Known about the structure:
In chain A, the strands form 3 sheets. A 4-stranded mixed sheet of chain A has the order 1-4-5-8. Chain A has 3 domains: about 5-120, Butyryl-Coa Dehydrogenase, subunit A, domain 1 (Orthogonal Bundle), CATH 1.10.540; about 120-230, Butyryl-CoA Dehydrogenase, subunit A, domain 2, CATH 2.40.110; about 235-375, Butyryl-CoA Dehydrogenase, subunit A, domain 3. Helices cover about 50% and strands about 15% of the residues of chain A. Chain A is an alpha+beta fold. In chain B, the strands form 2 sheets. Chain B has a 9-stranded mixed sheet, sandwiched between helices. A two-stranded antiparallel ribbon of chain B has the order 2-3. The N and C termini of chain B lie far apart (about 60 Å). The interface of A and B includes residues 14 and 49 of A.
Amino acid sequence: MQFPLTEEQRLIQTTAREFADNEIAPVADKHNREGVFPADLVKRMGQLGFLGMLVPETYGGNGIGNFGLVLALEEVNRACASTGVTMSVQNSLVCAPIVHFGSAALKKKYLPKLASGEFLGAYALSEPGSGSDAAGLVASAVKDGDSFVLNGTKNFITTGAEADVVIAMLRTDPSHKTRGITAFIVESGWEGFAVGKKEDKLGLRSSSTVQLVFEDMRVPAANILGEVGIGFKIAMHTLDGGRIGIAAQAVGIAQACLDASVKYAEEREAFDQQIGKFQAIQFKLANMATKIEASRLLVYNAARLKDAGQPHGKEAAMAKLFASEASNDAAREAVQIHGGAGYLEDFSVERYFRDARITEIYEGTSEIQRIVIARHVLKNLR
Amino acid sequence: MKIVVLVKSVPDTESKIKIGADGTSIDPQGLKFIMNPYDEFAVEEGLRIKERLKDDTTVVAVSMGPERAVEVLRTALAMGADDAIHVSDPAFEGGDAQANARVLAEVIRPLSPDLILGGKQAIDYDAAQVCPAIAEYLGMPQALIVSELKISDDKKVATARRRVEGGDEMVEMTLPALVTCEKGLNEPRYASLPGIMKAKKKEIKKVGLADLPLKAESVGAAGSKTKVVKYHNLPERPPVKMIAGDAAAQAAELVRLLREEAKVI
Lengths: 382, 265
């Protein structure tokens, strides 16, 4: 795609692309088949700065910002969406809320280690009984002197098995649904923290998704992110940013689908010619390429607005909605172009097809994105 | 020590090269440019020497070429080079390897480097002439196609392992010297994101003809003794012919084809 990037942005993109092509892509199929978390790769990504892109230099990051982040995320996700989601969660769901809402002490304590990859992080909002209805969460934090005692179960926690720190939303006031939620930074080494069931998923098989259980876990009040009662606001603000990352992930998966399809269309022959010479295949490729380009522009725009400090909730939701659907369209067509071969795990498109599906679900389902967008459109209807 | 590393912007290895309309140039439209891969070994080696010595050693990246050379220099800075010099002037256009080496030698001379590192060749024109010519102009020893390099503790001698036909040759040189780098010398690092942010703030020094003790007639096309007359595309590869039958029949048919069609036996 022709898009006027600055020299610095091109260098970020190139570095991410080279790392993704040379280091991540060659092992992605194997890691996903075996369900291995790529700890070494993630560590190296931390050393290169890919986990601290939203963290200011004063706290050990590189402060590159959201635009640079989406450029890098697309490249990493093109190679492996599991590695991509680990990177996205660390940047957007763990580092970003600490940067925005954390006290100076919390920033100093956690950000340098998270930015360098020495610590991995997770974000715990969903529960067995609350997903899209996030404010319906019941896991509780009860004040006891200078600390809070946490009890409850969190569901579908990405990187939960490997995380050193978790940003967890807990109910501190049962009498108010949204304003009764508080965000805490908890450490996995603390007593009362347990990793529960590891989920066996359709895709993202080299990223861990687990249940986290808090049982009488004592957390110092100093580890409250922001203040008591603004946890839901923090959660929603954080997801606005996270959505841009997931939209970038969807673009990366879609681009991988297109790249694989173009290669196959130029190589595979049927009826005495390359299948790319058939209009049926050409139209599929044209549709894929066009939707990818549109998705990418939506992602760039949302990231650009966020970096400029402007409202971006609607744009982030649009980018996530459109890119995730485009990604699934691309994945379905990629498998179709590959025919029977695309249904086999010998070809990476089989993995892309399974990985694309989650982009329409996590960090807000497509239905939730439509609600967010509709609320922005119907300004006067409350 | 002062280490000069020569880097060049070349078309990506996966690019499809098209000959320009004039027949004597490469059409840059739609080409993606990268740092010459052998130059990456040179940058990496310079940085490793600096890191090993842990003294006041500096690594200066030098690139001659159009505006896109700046991006390659920025990459060298992002990898960890201390300074960068962009050598560019309309007068330098159309220069052959010797004319370009003459310019680069004069850019490098006032820097008084202890070591000059470059790629064993650039993957665009594959001439492999600029680096050795620079060493000649500067009157320093050179070791080409080096796969292992050691600098003595007193920083006065370089020992290089060269790939030669059928084996390796060990060369010892007094510094200052020039070395061109071969694959296997090291594993180049990725430019880190903090490195990219730091590189953004560094100034890339521009050097043109006016800054050098050279006359316009000794540089660029005017100072070149060779001239590209025409580029040709590689001929299309003829289709592969499969020979059927059992082994004996295949062998007989192969001999017949080699004799009657290919006329090689």
